């Protein structure tokens, strides 16, 4: 009684929804509706199904299962389609029913702004009744160019009682032809049947019952499917011969034999016979360590231009049986001579993995001990599923396709290589794009991938690289130089069936992960479980014309097209086709000629025309020269006089361009140093004349910025064009100064002029024609890093505005500039926070290294006067520098560690309260600065490595930049809380620390008390 009431309610709820359909039922295609009363209506059983859908009337054969009548007439005279599960052999047996093929759905059905969104629907009735009933699924299969794509639309499982249920499913956006698929799967018991009836597609799927302005250009019977457009051949190539080189029907790891190619090419009327290289006496066989089995060759019948088009082979599918992995396309035009021989290796597809299925005997599936007797009953099914292990889920990599020649020296020269597709991984298909064959790349070196674990597939083979020592060597594809044999799939129980084998052409064998594709550079295999193998990489010789590469192109075996150039297409010289359909053409010109703007005509190099123009211009110039000779001579004389006066003034100022090396000897009794001790410069002789000169009238000083080591530093304006100005910083040298100061000033200018890096202050020029002398630099408005850190120290009443990421970025900027100097083999010798400037104080700040040769007077207490001459930054120096006077790039590394400590401590003075002599004693005996409060451990680890007593054990700046980059990516570092200082010194003033007696012990200063 309950079943009857439910059935009445269901029928009443759908009756109004079906009115619109039946009103237009005569307008929709006949295959769009089916009640199975007159047969299958175009529906068919899939050929590989273990169970079959059958048409039936009345009750199903078994009791208490299936429907007792159909849905259409609700009596025993009506027909419905059902699956008799009692005929299956085991758990997971499936019955698949495919619908007729339909054209794409209308665009308005998938338009969220349209009132007819989701109006294209599929409607049907289903019946699931019986103990342990299986599942019923509805799938959409789109017929895409490379492979059908499956998408589950609806799924039902279990016993739904003896009732016909209505189901309405909206179809998604479909741009290809498609068909629908019902799949019934058996459970572990036999007493359960599944039935369907009264299938229909709504009229909106065909543009029926929808206003014309909504339908627009949609026409169900004339669909616009881009992949089905036919490409027209160019009429000038209608009767031309095209050479097509194929795999000769060969599949698997090994290439074709002579007999295979002879039989295959005899059947292919459009192809010319191409001999295998191993079938005749060829110089290839005389090359040591080169295998010729499976290679093919072709001799050029006449000289001229030829288009070469190569396609790599696809990779194998994974155990899911779905997805696509395509080979790459490579193309180029080359000029060949008559009698020249081209050699080919045509890539073969990677073998598919064994498709996983519970409904049939699966040679890929291992379910425990083979000698264990089979058990029966429901518990046995559960036990078998629990023991089941899929051991061979990855497809093999597709082989790359190679075109090459042999030089007179016997060396192989590649012309064109198209990469093969990688094998798809175990499990559900993931379209990450890495599996397709790739265009050429300059980012990878010519090395082969490796199999990281025993369950991973093999990498693809390259041009001349391979690996035989790796544990996965059998699965790895061989390089072309080693025969291009595909890697072997790693399944142990089924070696003879070839599941997952790599294709000939270097394809890697598959296992849990897909094998890599072959190519000029072989693709690597997946590292994670179920990962796809990487496609191989293509290559084109530099001598090719019109090169073109496309990844993810070929869905089948590799092939090569050779298309001779012709005279035609409206070209003055030669016409070549650049696609396999002979539709797209290009015009070529002979050497010494160039293609005109119309891309057809050939224009001679304008040598004769240029000579004629030169003669005319020469005659005209002679006439003009006679009339203007007197004026020209006058201008030249004035220019000479001005230049002479300028040289005299420079001679008075700088000794006529005296070399800096000579200025080093101009010392006096009052000089503090013979030469700037903080910087080292190459021993070459340089003159101040080598620096860019800026006229004094182009520089305007606006306001002073501070006092430098030699003189005042001003903010100014540089007018470098008529109406263009730029802010600058002007470092001055007083008029009254020593010759040593002048030499140091010029040395700093020379040093800074050699650098060009975003983290080093940019040098603009000098202005030495008048006193005071100027060095012009870019203006950095943020001030120096040390004062900036002091201003940003956290206070009890104000937290700092900086984050740990801001501090690490500052250190990273300085390290970048130091790396540049390290690469240039330059030693700064005074890396410290005071010598670094900021572009601004707000977000987006950039730190730059400055002060190449001068330190400000305020920091003179931080230097140690060595020998009464040199002032050295002891607190920033390693032991070998202040003990032995040894300076190297490792000296700057030590100083950078101290600078990093300054940054993390917000500008505190290192070794606070200690005199220079105490610092020297402390550092020499192994003492080091303690970790600043709140400093992350990775950053202090960098400091500690910079302070290693042995210079050779300190890291390079390249390593430091890398480590700081890791810190910027580490959330534990960049999210580290900033230090909380209870009592801090006022940032506007410095606390004066009394220096102890040089013989006294170092004073331990508590910052919280200060």
UniProtKB/TrEMBL annotation:
Entry's transmembrane regions: 614-637
Ligand binding (ATP): 731
Location (main, coarse): membrane
Pfam families the UniProt entry points to: ALK_LTK_GRD, MAM, PK_Tyr_Ser-Thr
Protein's cellular compartments: Cell membrane
Any single biological process term in GO: cell surface receptor protein tyrosine kinase signaling pathway
UniProt keyword Glycoprotein, yes or no: yes
Cellular component aspect of the GO annotation: plasma membrane; receptor complex
Domain Protein kinase: 699-979
Keywords: ATP-binding, Cell membrane, Disulfide bond, Glycoprotein, Kinase, Membrane, Nucleotide-binding, Phosphoprotein, Receptor, Signal, Transferase, Transmembrane, Transmembrane helix, Tyrosine-protein kinase
Catalytic reaction annotation: L-tyrosyl-[protein] + ATP = O-phospho-L-tyrosyl-[protein] + ADP + H(+)
Broadest EC class assigned to this enzyme: transferase
Name of this chain's protein: Tyrosine-protein kinase receptor
Species assigned in the record: Fopius arisanus
